[in-house]
Amino acid sequence: MKLIGKLTGVILSTFLIIPLTVSADYHAGGRTSPIFTAYYDGSVASYGYTAHLDTGRTAWYQVGKVNISKSSSNSSSYDEYYVGTNTDPTLLGAQTPYKNGTVPGTHVFAGWDGTWKYSVLSLYDNNMNNAGFSYNDKVGVAVHEVGHTLALKHTTAPNLSVMASGTWAGNPTYLPTTYDIGQLKAKWGITP
Ligand SMILES: [Zn+2]
Predict the structure, then answer these.
(1) pLDDT of 132 above 60
(2) CA of 71 to the centre of ligand 1 (A)
(3) Which of the ends of the chain has fewer CB neighbours closer than 10 A, N or C?
(4) How far is the CA of 57 from the centre of ligand 1 (A)?
């Protein structure tokens, strides 16, 4: 009986330790604010991804706190959305953060922990089609990449998440989960 008691104690301790060791799934860097505008390049409409990216933006909306507006004309601080093709079949989409370069008018990679001026978001139509992606599967990739523009990283813990590495066809979620919204709020200091 004493042995069982000791074992139970060990198991409980293990469970209590786990939440303390889970790291946050967001970058130290990012924009200075999660309220900004995204420019839709003409390729978004020509490849038929306007609705996917509309959902990608609005899925993360938090009243008064997180809001990505949409624009059909570009500006230096706007995120930029593109749709095209990529020869690497494993690439479904990409997000790259930029900051001003030392030469005026140029932009360079901002670094994940730096301060971002804007992101370039790309979706790769050929690779999603070749992988047999459904409409919702493609929306999931759009939501995932927009999540990256809000400084969310790939989810490391075994949580249901649209930010899982390599959002694949048939992913059980194509929208932000409770876990994802929790990470978004933690990153941007949103309470409750
Ligand atoms: Zn990703």
Answers:
(1) yes
(2) 24
(3) C
(4) 15
